[in-house]
Amino acid sequence: MDRPRDPVLADAARGRILFGGDYNPEQWPEETWHEDVRLMKEAGVNTVTLGVFSWARLEPRPGAREFGWLDTLMDLMHDNGVGVVLATPTASPPPWMGRLHPETLPRDADGHVEWWGGRQHFSHSSAVYRRYAAAITEDLAARYGSHPALTLWHINNEYCTFDHGDEAAAAFRRWLRDRYGTLDALNDAWGTAFWSQGYDCWDGVLPPRRAHYLNNPSQVLDFRRFTSDMLLECFTAERDIVARHTPHIPVTTNFMPLWTGQDGWRWAEEEDVVSVDLYPDARDPLAPRSAALVQDLTRSQARGPWMVMEQAAGGVNWRAVNQPKPRGLNRLWSLQAVARGADAVCYFQWRQSRQGAEKFHSAMLGHAGPRGRAFQEVKRLGADLARIGAEVAGTGIRADVAVLHDWHAWWAGDQDGRLSTEAGADYPAVLSAWHGALWESGVTCDFAHPEHDLSGYRMVVAPQLYLLTDAAVDNLLAYVRGGGTLVAGFLTGTADQDDRVRPGGMDVRLRELFGVRVLHEWWPLPAGEQVDCEGFTGILWSEEIEAADTVDEVLAYRGGELDGMPAVLRRDRAWYFSTLPEPEALRALLARIAAGAGVRPVLDGLPPGVEAVRRGGLLFLLNHGRAPVTVPLPGRHHDLLGGAAVTDAVTLDRYGAAVLRS
Ligand code: GAL
Q1: Are 588 and 620 in the same domain?
Q2: Which residues are catalytic?
Q3: What does pTM read for this prediction?
Q4: To pair with 17 at 20 to 30 A between CA atoms, which of 157, 170, 337, 544?
Q5: Shortest CA distance to 87 belongs to which of 134, 145, 7, 157?
Q6: What's the burial of 310, exposed, middle or buried (CB within 10 Å: 0-12/13-18/19+)?
Q7: For a pLDDT cut of 90, what percent of the chain falls above it?
């Protein structure tokens, strides 16, 4: 089927950035709907997502259908020029389903049932759940497929359930048979010779349920792969139904940011548009950096423009302390997402709920109503997006650097029984330290899978690919052979695809590549402990390495047990870091290596706290600081946001932004 890759692009062709949010009108009387559309228009809202949690309303009894209210809303939206992202409601089955079919409810590793009364209480492996989900999806697609308001399908919501129950166990066994063919192969891959775990029949193989002591790590790894695949089956089943009815309407499902439960590379391939929910913490000084990571990752998954499907206009209700966003921050962070490739800025949710678990979660239209600050700032943003849409929507971003990320490496690495459980040594923390160092230097980067074609990048950074397939190792070697610069962090290349430690503790070809003769021991460091190195301080990790004679450069450990051994070593264009330099040092070292590889930051000499990104022909300048700042910028430019010309310098307010055409 010839399906569009990106609906946002379809809108982009009309010069629009999608702007709106989840709309849950079933929580409100009909007269409120009319006030809603009036205010939507006032705020420049051009899209809403309907139906995300509407299953009980649409199917109040098994097989019943109540579409009348949704008919009215679809028409109302269309009549008012608001497009509809229509969701399948399958993330929250109605209570009758769990009551009549308890096998549709998932179980955790202890065997406890996850009951109805919240949401996402469905077993991905339940045939009954899948049958009901397919039926409601079919009927929604048949009823609204030709409705003129429909612009995009939104399948389910933040797929994230794990299930250790019996039906999932049977599905797990089927999945494992497909993967391994024979029990012998499974026993070998899982290393079941250890602790007397050898399986004599398939029926004995289970999800990693609560055990007395550490679960088998390869079993845990496969269970994560299986879970991702089962949820993906749920997604593609619904996607195929809607695509049959509406081949011209693209399909997405919203990811959680850097979420562990799905192999995001694989999933993105199955979507027409990639979308993500983004909730940085306004109280976290590193929030813009963390957001940039998710934005770069999502853009890379999408291979182009993508959508912020959800963000908060103010505070959320699920942190320890939930403060609103200070004045201006909602706008700044929305523009940051656009700068990094988003063609849609949407929220959870349009109107703040008065009841239910999220009544204290902010919305575009908060409890304070249209006079509230949240709505006033949303209105301003709507006008800004309308101003820049024509020149921004659909355009791309060029990056010379790729950061490698693989969910399988994460799943294998972050398990019990590892060498350090310090939070900073967790996979996402290490990934973020490396990406953050590039972000601080103003270097734009993509993310890539270790088996992707990397030849277009001048520099590739592998923060912690603990698990690497043989194909990935081949790919990295070919990349360096082809002239690329590779920088790898500690624990890269430790294990194979089954989580079996490679002989020598690191893939032999990588040892050869980096100039590691022997990796004697890993020496993780407790939080707060540092290790002196030539020219910098290392944290979190160190390694007792003997360098090969042929290395080209070594920065050695100074003092302590590893005195004189290489903390960083380079052979030709391949670098290996056996410790994590503290943030400023990592930034400086990476900046030096990047410069050597011909990589330039977007702008030189940016004041601290100012982010610069080029998208299409435009330069976005974003001031993450709480004080105004002036950015020197030789020449004459036009600021699309301010509508005025600027010459030789741009002054940005606190949390201010400029979008410049030169
Ligand atoms: C998302 C979810 C929304 C809402 C939001 C609150 O994870 O998709 O439905 O719950 O969080 O932050």
Answers
A1: no
A2: 158, 310
A3: 0.98
A4: 157
A5: 157
A6: buried
A7: 97
